[in-house]
Design goal:
Belongs to the UDPGP type 2 family. By secondary structure, the chain is α/β, with parallel strands linked by helices. It contains 11 helices and 13 strands. The protein starts with a strand and ends with a helix.
Length: 293
């Protein structure tokens, strides 16, 4: 196989975090001491991907600035002998070969993925959404790449959720396979009402897709919310008996949802508690704080 590339859609308006996202991209909101999008890039790099395309919109230049070098800051830290911070600053500009393209109009996730067609070409590629942070100790993306190489199918990440919460996600209808941890996806529904959901298996923000998805997205009509939905294109692929099909990798590991304010705060706390440099002081404070509630 050709070396895989990754696509990170980052053109959303971030309205849930207004007014913080009025001038700052939601992907640049700090999670402990790194912007959320850096965790996503690091995950792709950890899975062996070093060519990454970020789909951006207006007022998103801070994202490209973050992954660029800042010589004056690096010189100042070097002069101060602050090698720890210097290393962390330089890491973000040395992570991978990162490219940017504008989405233009916010026409949905499917449209954002379609904007990657020229860069990706005719190879399979990974799509990573910035609202879902996967713990660096997990191997989800690597497992998904392995599943694609084994089956040739589109691969989606699935996670069991409370049935009452399935309306916040795409939901998958699945059948078991002979391969533990991999299911055949027979249908997908975008944000169904709980009583209409085919299962409580939610599609979370990781995909490994064959390049044939682009042809489907080209003819996919706007769906829920008036947007071109990636879920609709995957549904067509799942229903095509002569195509590559769609499989799911069921994930039960550590995932941090930064999609709304409460979950964003939870993500910061969970990641900080696990840090060697922060957890020792934070854990006893959290226990004391909880006891006083």
């Amino acid at each position: 196989m050709k070396k895989m590339k990754a696509v990170i859609p980052a053109a959303g308006l971030g309205t849930r975090f207004l007014p913080a996202t009025k001038a700052m991209p939601k992907e640049m909101l700090p999670v402990v001491d790194k912007p959320a999008i850096q965790y996503v890039v690091e995950e792709a790099v950890g899975a062996g991907i070093d060519d990454i395309l970020v789909i951006i919109g207006r007022n998103k230049n801070a994202i490209s600035d973050h992954f660029d070098s800042v010589p004056e800051l690096e010189v100042r830290l070097q002069q101060k002998g602050d090698h720890g911070r210097l290393e962390r600053v330089m890491k973000s500009s040395d992570l991978a070969d990162i490219h940017f393209v504008r989405q233009g109009e916010p026409k949905g996730l499917g449209h954002a993925v379609l904007r990657a067609r020229t860069h990706v070409g005719d190879s399979a590629f990974a799509v990573l959404l910035g609202d879902d942070l996967i713990d660096e100790r997990e191997t989800l993306l690597t497992d998904m790449i392995d599943a694609h190489e084994k089956t040739g199918a589109a691969v989606i990440a699935l996670m069991e959720v409370d049935p009452a919460q399935i309306q916040m996600y795409g939901a998958a209808a699945v059948e078991t396979t002979d391969d533990a941890g991999i299911v055949k996806v027979t249908g997908l529904v975008e944000k169904p009402a709980p009583e209409d959901a085919p299962s409580n298996l939610a599609v979370i923000g990781r995909y490994v897709l064959p390049s044939s998805i682009f042809e489907i997205l080209e003819r996919t009509e706007p769906g829920k919310g008036g947007e071109i939905q990636l879920t609709d294109a995957l549904q067509e692929m799942a229903a095509d008996e002569n195509g590559p099909g769609v499989v799911g990798v069921i994930f039960g590991g550590r995932r941090y949802d930064t999609g709304d304010r409460v979950d964003y705060i939870k993500a910061i706390v969970q990641l900080a508690v696990d840090r060697d440099d922060l957890g020792t002081d934070l854990r006893p404070w959290l226990k004391d704080f909880a006891e006083r509630l």
